[in-house]
Amino acid sequence: MLRRIVVIAVFLALFGMIAQFAIRPKSVSPRGRSSQEDVRQDDPARIRVSVLVQDENAAPLISARVRLFSGDPAAELVTDPAGRCETVLRLPPTLVRVTFFHLGSDGREAVGVGESREFERHGLDWLVTVRVALSRDVAVVCSIVAETGTPLRGCRVRMTRLVNETEVGMPIESEPSDENGTALFKGMTPRGIYTVAVWSPRYFSDPERVSAAESPSYVRVVAREFPKVRGRVVDATGRPIPHAAVVFQVTVSASESTRAESVTDENGDFEFRITEDGDATISAIAPGLQTTSNKIGVVLIHGRSTSTVVSMASAAPGRLVRAQAVPPEGVSPKDVRIWLTKIVSDADDPEERVRIAVADGGEFSFELRRGDRYMLILQAPGCTSVTIRDLNSDTDIPKEFVLQRRK
């Protein structure tokens, strides 16, 4: 019994010591002083440095990152809602450097850096104010309208930076304009100067100048339709030639030209848009008829539309080939593209490249003139191309061309 009493007494004594240690009040700085003030009380030679960070309009910058350089390793701080922060240093500061980044709820960024070596000294209290010039990204809103003032939907806009009145860098392209004719560019350089221009398959515009001085900045762009060359291909009797291949070529300079290709409709009609200034030529190619070219003359992108008639005479008899394209299941015969190229050298330089029309059932036809060499190419989405080289009027040509899916 005595042993049990002794064990209980020892246990109670130990428990009391532990409880006394656990609930002992912590030391608190007099009058609620911070730990930094306690350090200064222990070492009066330490310096308290206060930093105020503001933007160019003297508004405080919150959560700016501050680095204070002195003889010690750099102190890193973050500003409070008043744009302030402070610390205690052993050695006088020599430089304060600030970096700031903020992403607003509207998706706009504000970025800036600043530094200062100018400190106000009040005994051991030093104060420095750092002004940070912010770069806020700017949005540019383009309003695209026709010459009548109607908003244009589906137009893309190209924007290019101007430096000293010279376009620099690659142009950037907007998404297609919405139903209100609006196209938007984000993240433009503040106070940057740009040119914007509409360039789409149907419309174009002259460059408009815009200054990204504020966000958003607005610019109105008046677009117009490209002028056109319309025409009809007929034979010597005036009968329209359907499915004739037509080539529209514009010579821009001695070393530059543009080329577009099309096929006449059931009425022998064709149409091309004029997208460059230069001398234009229309060429028509059809089985059993002589290849014919018409000189249109000078066409201008800011000019008017024009029209022409291409009259084709009968050619010397050649071999008319009729065949059928057989694509795999799931691919329409109308999706098959067939090209016939006339070869004029061993290097396979094309002189005439004709796109052959394909009927709904995959039937097509072409003519091989005697003494000429050709190359035939069949292509379809997701299929391996079929190519027959060195064709001539005596070549044995299959009645069906079967296309296989690409592995």
Short recap of the structure:
With 407 residues, this protein is mainly β.
Report on this model:
This protein has four domains: 44-135, Immunoglobulins (Immunoglobulin-like, Sandwich), CATH 2.60.40.10; 138-225, Immunoglobulins (Immunoglobulin-like, Sandwich); 228-312, Carboxypeptidase-like, regulatory domain (Immunoglobulin-like, Sandwich); 319-402, Immunoglobulin-like (Sandwich), CATH 2.60.40. It has a five-stranded antiparallel β-sheet, with no helix packed on it. The chain has a four-stranded mixed β-sheet with strand order 4-1-8-7. Strands 13-10-17-15 form a four-stranded mixed β-sheet, with no helix packed on it. The protein is mainly β and 407 residues long. It contains two helices and 31 strands. A hairpin with a 6-residue loop joins strand 29 and strand 30 (386-391).
